[in-house]
Amino acid sequence: MIDIRQVREAPDTLREALRRRGRRDADEVVATLANLDAKRRTILQDVEQRKSERNRASEEVAQRKKRGADAAPLIAELKDLSDSIKTKDQALRDVDATLRERLLWIPNIPLPDVPEGDASANRLERSWGEPPRFSFAPRPHWDLGQALGILDLARGAKLSGSGFPLFRGAGSRLIRALLQFMLDLHTREHGYEEVSTPYLVTGETAQGTGQLPAFADEMYTTRDGLYLVPTAEVPVTNIHRDEILAADELPKGYTAYTPCFRREAGAHGKDTRGLIRVHQFDKVELVRFTRPEASAAELETLTRHAEAVLQRLEIPYRVVTLATGDMGFASAKTYDLEVWAAGVGAWLEVSSASTFTDFQARRANIRYRPAADAKPEYVHTLNASGVAFPRTLIALLENNQAEDGSVRIPEALVPYLGVDRLTPRGTP
To answer: Domains in the chain, ordered, with CATH?
Structure first.
């Protein structure tokens, strides 16, 4: 959530930030927020003045009673004043609720160094590794997975519909191997604390990270109003909702594995084949809490932690800074990590590393105390996939395939999987 002081003190800056985000209604949005804020402050001033008058009248009633004077007329005025205060208090609560609801729909302010435009304006920062070359036409992962007996898309669709893959045999073990490898790397070498969170969250929890209200239609819900997590970022960030952290706790990092559920995946008929875009997938997430002055450096650290996974798995990738029109609602700056997948011949995003500045912290009321006697301030939150499994699997299978249909397993994953090569069914 943006700071209302941006509306009061820097409306032009806010309008420009929304325009950079592609919001054509920037003028209208800022004007509406300014009017609501002005109305709120007017009512608040009126309420405070009436409460001051009530206090003075109460004191006068007490003095008259003490002197034995007639206080009845003043008591009647006091009752009328109290009734008007109740009315004004309710009006204040109403305008507060309306203002907060409006603010919940406003995206985060992009940092100055974020390129402006749509996805075509995304900026390549660096790359690692070389895309493999083959003496044969590389096969896509859906063909490889079927031949290896590890991926059964047809039966997954029979069970739950399109976008719900079924892994079998070595495919299931490969999921477990990736999970354990990533969690071990992030906890043992990168210093994250592992947590296991619920997979269902409340609306308040989803609102805290920015999924609600803007993306309610993209989340799976239960009949009792809980939401299936679209990413572990949601429950993990909210671990410290409504808390005040000590300064010496920061930076603080958590890692978690969860399945992720997204209704929007596969919509509009784009990238629907195989594992490129699915409704349910596994992911290891990284979440960090930090002081505001350290968040820029923390984003670089977080991104390197996600990159380390891909380097250990020997997957060529590139790091791209997303433009204002391509990054997420809550993000102030995002690096996408895109892996090369030889079979589909495309760069596929496997991680988004983002800083949210104090946007999520304001929504979830996550603060820290800079010093023992200091006023609490909002932390900065960051997160990255560390990393998502489906497209990582795509790259592993497609980049490491041999002409006979077998697939080499990267050295870092061999101890977790127990074999260094997957072979087609019926092949020794």
So the answer is: 4-104 (1.10.287.40), 119-422 (3.30.930.10)
